[in-house]
Amino acid sequence: MTSPRQRLNLSGLLTVAALLLLWQGIVAARVIELQYLPAPTEIATAALSLLADGQLLDATAHTLSATVVGWLLALVVGGALGVVLGTWRPARALVAPTVDVLRTLPVVALVPIAVLLLGFSTTMEITVAAWAAAWPIVVNTMGGVAAVHPRLREVAATLHFTPARRIWSIVLPAAAPLVVVGARLGLSISLIVTVIAEMIGNPMGLGHELVQMQQALRPDAMFAAMLVIGMLGVLLNSALLSVSARVGVRGRS
Amino acid sequence: MKAAGYTCRDLSVTLSGPAGERSILDGVTLDIAQGEIIVIVGRSGTGKTTLLRALGGLVLPSSGTLQLGGRDIDGPPTEVVMVFQDYAHALLPWRTVRRNVALGLEGSNKHTRAERDELVDSALEVVGLSARAEDRPWQLSGGMQQRVQIARALALQPRVLLMDEPFGALDAMTKASLQDELLAVQGRTSATIVFITHDIEEAIYLADRVMVIDGAPGRITYDIVVDLPRPRDQLKTKELPRYLALRRLVHEAVTGGLDD
C-alpha cells in the first residue's frame, strides 16, 4: 500500500529537465528548421507575461471551473445511473446496448451539434463535458455495484436496511474502488472535452486562448497555454486521488 | 414483547440454479418454541443452510407454511439476525471492527448514541475483541473475523439468532469459551437460537433439541430432546452418562448407522 502523498520522483524530474535542455539546444543550434518552434525559455517568458496581465489566469479559472462543474454533473447523474443499472439486472439488459452505442460516439463530433443546440455558451461547454465524462462513470459504477458480493446484500437484508441505507452504507463503499476509477477517467475526459469545446464553440478559457494565439502567430503563448492545460490535468488527478484516500478508498488491486 | 417461535408445516424449498430447478427441502415440519436452542446437524448437501435461510426470510417457501410468531415469513423478519458461515464476505472490509459491530444499530432510532456505544462495547467484550476494536477485519485471523460477525449479531439483542456453523473456523479453546458465552447470553436474553454445526459434541452441549436433517431433498429425520441439566459445564456435562448416550444416539442418527 502506497501512502497517498506521492514521493517526489527525482529521476523522473531529471528526465524532464534533460528533455527541456535538449529542446533548448535543438532550437538554439537550429538543427531542425521549424519556423514557429519556440525554445523553452521563450515559452517560459510568454507564460510569465501572460500570467502577469491576468489573461492566462482568467482563462485557467474558466477552464478549471467548467471542467469541474461538468465532471460533478457527470458524477451525480452517471453515478446514479450506474447504481440503478448495477443493482437492477432487468434495467441493465434494457439499457446496456444503448449505453454502449452512446459512449462510443466520438464526442468531438458532438460539439458542433451542441453548439447549434445550445449556442456558443458555457452551458454548451459544460453539457458536452458532462456528457463525455458520464460514460466511464456509468460503466465503472455499474460494474462495481453489480460485483458487490451477494452476501453483503443479505447482510443488509437481515439488518433491515432501507434501500437508501443499503446503497449508502454497503453498496457504494463496496463499489468505491471502481467508482473512483470511473471518476478519474471522467475527470480527465471532462478536461479534454472542455478544452475542445472552448476551441470550437465557447470563446473562453484555455482552449480559446490556444486558438487565439495560433491566429496571432504566437507559438510561445500557445505552448504556455498547453503547459497550463497539462498541469491542470495532473493537479486535478492528484487532488481526486488525495480526496479519495482521505475518505478511505484505496484501489484494492 | 412478541413471541418468537417458529411454526413450520410441510415446508418445501425449490431453488433454480444453472442446472435448472432443484428441490432442496421437502416436507419439513417443525416447531420451535421461543427461547429454545435448536441445533441442526446433518451431512453436507442436505439443505441445512437452506433451512436456516428460510427461517431468516432470505429464501421463500415453494410450498407449505412457515411462520414466526404466528405470521408468515415473506422476507427477513425483524428481530431475527443471521450469522453467516462465510464471515469474510459478511463483514465490511472498509470499516473498523467497532464500526462493523455497530452496523446493525446505526439505522434505528431505538437507541441513543451512548446506548449504542455501550451495546457495541459489551458485544466486543463478550467475543473477546475489545482490544482489536480499531483494526480492520482483514487484519484479524479467520476465527476473530467470525467473532466480529457474532458480536454484530449480539449487539442487536435479537429475539432470534440464526447461526450457520459459526464456530467452525475457531480453535478448540475459543470455541469452548464462545459456546459458554452464547449459552450465557441466551440465559440473559432468552433468545431463540437455531444453530447449524457439523460437530456432534457441540450440538449436544448447546441444544435443547438436536434435529437431524438428511436426504436430498432434505427433511428432518430425527428430533432428539437433549435432557441435560443447565447450566452446562464443558467438563461435568460431557462426563454425564446421559451425555455419552445422547452422543451415540445423535451420531447414529446422522450417519444412519443402525447396524452398530
From TrEMBL, chain A:
Domain of life: Bacteria
TM ranges: 68-88, 100-120, 126-149, 170-201, 221-243
Gene3D superfamilies named among the record's database cross-references: MetI-like
Membrane topology: Multi-pass membrane protein
Residue span(s) of domain ABC transmembrane type-1: 60-240
Keyword Zinc: no
Annotated InterPro entries: MetI-like, MetI-like_sf
Keyword terms of this UniProt record: Cell membrane, Membrane, Transmembrane, Transmembrane helix, Transport
Primary subcellular site in the record, as a coarse category: membrane
CDD domains xrefs: TM_PBP2
Cell compartments where the protein resides: Cell membrane
Xref: Pfam families: BPD_transp_1 (PF00528)
Family label: Belongs to the binding-protein-dependent transport system permease family.
Name this polypeptide is given: ABC transmembrane type-1 domain-containing protein
Source organism of the structure: Allokutzneria multivorans
Upper taxonomic lineage: Bacteria, Bacillati, Actinomycetota, Actinomycetes, Pseudonocardiales
Automatic annotation (TrEMBL), chain B:
Keyword match Nucleotide-binding: yes
InterPro entries reported in the protein's UniProt record: AAA+_ATPase, ABC_transporter-like_ATP-bd, ABC_transporter-like_CS, ABC_transporter_ATP-bind, P-loop_NTPase
Superkingdom: Bacteria
Keywords carried by this UniProt record: ATP-binding, Nucleotide-binding, Transport
Keyword Transport in annotation: yes
GO molecular function list: ATP binding
Gene3D superfamilies per UniProt: P-loop containing nucleotide triphosphate hydrolases
All copies of domain ABC transporter, residue ranges: 8-240
Protein name: ABC transporter ATP-binding protein
Organism: Allokutzneria multivorans
Upper classification of the organism: Bacteria, Bacillati, Actinomycetota, Actinomycetes, Pseudonocardiales
